[in-house]
Design goal:
With about 200 residues, the protein is mostly helical. The protein has one domain (about 10-205). The protein is built from nine helices and four strands. The strands form two sheets. It has a two-stranded antiparallel sheet. The chain has a two-stranded antiparallel ribbon with strand order 2-3.
Length: about 200
């Protein structure tokens, strides 16, 4: 089935300590498109089967968004737990380099959870309330997902665990206020025909 990509995307400003999955979910929600179509478009995957199983081409993501969220190196450090995994010895420096230059494309689940096993994400109820008040929506915090994180370092509250196998997407987890309160970085125009040509060239290569 052919995935119809939007000709233009609205990119929200990055929230403090936000995960890359949370950012992608907010972009999809703000533009009114499915998460699957969005990750396929931003990651350069023509026929993604699942959101979490979509291969992540970080270089394509940064090129597509004109580096508004940073370079691949910066996105890797700011929006994922993979650099921590490297410090712990679970990933090598060459693997991180491969992710940055797009030669290695881990699944989105790897970016979301790092290399830890399990399907539980954590939230702080005080952070949820504060984020909705300040940013107009709640979002996934990167520090809350660290393997050693049990309490919110800001509020001192025990983090609540959510089983992602029972949740379709993060829009089901939080009750968000109007997206109109989001600060927006820019509107990026994308010609769908140009995108199709790029994907066709990549297939031939």
């Amino acid at each position: 089935m052919e995935i119809e990509y939007p000709s233009m995307l609205i990119l929200p400003e990055l929230c403090p300590d936000e995960t890359i999955y949370s950012l992608l979910a907010r972009i999809a929600r703000m533009n009114g498109i499915s998460h699957l179509a969005l990750v396929g478009q931003l990651m350069g995957e023509e026929y993604p089967i699942t959101v979490m199983g979509c291969p992540v081409n970080l270089k394509h993501f940064c090129d597509f968004t004109h580096n508004v969220y940073g370079t691949p190196h910066e996105v890797l450090h700011r929006l994922t737990l993979l650099t921590l995994a490297a410090h712990l010895g679970d990933l090598s420096a060459s693997m991180l380099t491969g992710i940055e230059n797009g030669t290695w494309k881990p699944k989105l689940a790897t970016f979301a959870w790092g290399v830890q096993k399990g399907f539980e994400w954590r939230i702080c109820k005080a952070c949820v309330a504060r984020d909705i008040e300040v940013f107009g929506t709640a979002y996934w915090h990167r520090l809350h997902q660290l393997p050693i994180s049990k309490y919110c370092t800001e509020h001192g509250l025990l983090l609540e665990k959510l089983d992602l196998r029972r949740i379709r997407d993060d829009g089901r987890c939080f009750t968000s206020r109007s997206e109109s309160r989001h600060r927006r970085l820019r509107v990026t125009s994308v010609d769908s025909r140009l995108l199709a040509q790029t994907q066709s060239k990549r297939k031939r290569i």
